[in-house]
Amino acid sequence: MRATRLLGAVATAVLVAAACGGPDLAAARSGPLTGQTIEVLAVWSDEEQAAFERVLDVFEERTGATVTYVSGGDEVPTVLATRLAGGSPPDVAGVAQPALVRTLARAGSLVPLDPATEAAIDAGFAPVWKELGTVDGTLYGFVFKAANKSTIWYDVRQLGPGFVPPRTWDEFEETLRKLSDTGRTPLSVGGADGWTLTDWFENVYLQTAGGPMYDRLARHEIPWTDPSVRTALQTLARVFRPEHLPGGIDSALQTEFAESVVDVFGEDPRASIVFEADFVAGVIAESTSATVGVDARVFPFPRIGPASSVVSGGDTLVALTDEPGTQALVQFLASSEAASIWAAQGGFVSPNREVRLEQYPDDSTRQIAEELVGADNLRFDMSDLMPSALGATRGDGFWRAMQDHLADPAQIDRILAELEAEATAAYADGDS
Fold this sequence. Notes:
Number of domains: 2
Number of strands: 12
CATH superfamily of the largest domain: Periplasmic binding protein-like II
Largest sheet: 6 strands, mixed
Number of helices: 22
């Protein structure tokens, strides 16, 4: 009971301070969590780490706690497994794969979120986001940093201020063809990172097959040899034409994600259009002289079906200890104020609908955030919903299959048969 009362007092103090602008630093350092250390493990590094640490600074100033952040990069699942095996988990972790959240919850490694945090999530997040953090009826986490993976970027300096973005898939194909006919190679694809190709597929599949079929494929309730998968891949192949890609197919397969962005917005551009989520903005800011919202602008993934569809990804924050400071921090991070601190710095989109659009630093990011929050048909990244052995392994599974398809779409039967065999084995292992 004492821990529960203290947690309530801490959470109230944090949220009241947020509403009032916060106490001064001297008072905060003698707050209710003075002397307590909270550790957070997540994927963010470099500029993203610095931005998140500014969010943590506000929590520290208002509670007196000390928050230590550890960047696990792409190895967060491995680091987390090692820490759990050693009996020293972090207090809070950011997990990109909902499948891993389910595995951790069912293993008893996660602590359910407290009622106050759940109430904040109910108020600020659409039900689909809450569902992603819920396992067997219990809420264990929420998506703090989301990604709108239904975004196409283009360089205004190359295409001109009068460029009219295509709205439909047919218009998109026509745009690429016209640019190609003028001797330009319009589309940069980071095929060396298989996840960029799975994101392409997921957007096309969601629009050609629809949300219910997307859900069934993600759960492997239909096979990868289903005709709906073939239709999506054939549709995708219509834009993955050698003449559309700088250096052709072979070059695209050797181009990593960050390089694909620089190939559009860098000093020596090789293309004028690139697909990927809002985190493209970070690469532009770090590696080019282009300005997001001015030189670098966006349009929604071209429609194939009647509804506006968005594929999203994101990092789900979960609690692994039941300390008062852990739950107080998680409740603070669930607030719109915490999200707004990072939003104002750029390179961030929140699914929290209480974050005001004017908090974002440029028109392109505001557009991306508005489309994410207002999507009629939103689904989470399919590869992150799969068992990690199938959906998140470099050079294998879903990633490799999409690379094989880019390399030779005529091999579609073999590719899908092999992927179906791998999926059958992965889901039989129970990692979902």
